[in-house]
Write a structure and sequence with these properties.
It is a single chain. This protein is mostly helical. It contains five helices and six strands; from the N terminus they run ββααββαβααβ. It has a single domain, classed as Cobalamin adenosyltransferase-like (Hypothetical Protein Ta1238, Chain: A, Up-down Bundle), CATH 1.20.1200. Helix content is 56%, strand content 8%. Strands 1-2 form a two-stranded antiparallel sheet. Strands 3-4 form a two-stranded antiparallel sheet. The radius of gyration is 18 Å and the shape is elongated.
Length: 177
């Protein structure tokens, strides 16, 4: 990677993996930036989970990079990098494994200082999911359908993980007015 000399800005343009130049204000770059945030939050969550889940989170970070590669490398011939259904299945299997150890959810959960980071990460994943939908609706590019499914399941995984690491959940009860 080369860096520009001092005083040489990029005028709001960046270059994708394919070499194509694109505005930093584009929907695609907005989505890729949000996925970068997701990846950083996943890395942060590793310090808050047991060692047995650390490997899975690191694998999940690699899947997020796979998604970025899939989106960033898209050309009129398709994407250089694919994204497969098996990644969604891996995530769903982990959700089921963790969820099977938890009490049935009957009320909304209120994030607290012990699990708020999981909920922040989950919210950013939801944001990425929405941005992908916008990109798909406004672009001629056709991404793997498993990317959207993966992001949807990733937010569910983070919700279940937040419950898994929390000793006592704070539940929502409608306030009396």
């Amino acid at each position: 990677m080369s860096f520009k000399k001092a005083g040489q800005g990029d005028n709001g343009i960046t270059r994708l993996y394919t070499g194509r130049k694109i505005s930093k204000g584009s929907d695609k770059i907005d989505l890729l930036g949000t996925l970068d945030e997701v990846n950083a939050w996943l890395g942060l969550l590793n310090r808050e989970i047991s060692k047995d889940l650390t490997k899975f989170i690191q694998q999940t970070q690699k899947r997020v990079i796979d998604i970025c590669s899939h989106i960033a490398s898209y050309t009129d011939k398709g994407s250089k990098y694919g994204f497969e259904e098996k990644y969604v299945v891996e995530l769903e299997d982990m959700i089921a494994k963790l969820d099977s150890t938890l009490p049935k959810l009957t009320q909304f959960i209120v994030p607290d200082e012990k699990n708020a980071n999981f909920h922040i990460a989950r919210s950013i994943v939801r944001q990425a999911e929405r941005k992908l939908v916008v990109l798909q609706n406004t672009s001629t590019e056709s991404y793997s359908p498993f990317v959207l499914k993966y992001l949807n399941r990733l937010s569910d995984f983070l919700f279940v993980l937040s419950r898994y690491v929390t000793e006592k959940e704070i539940t929502y009860k409608q306030s009396e007015y």
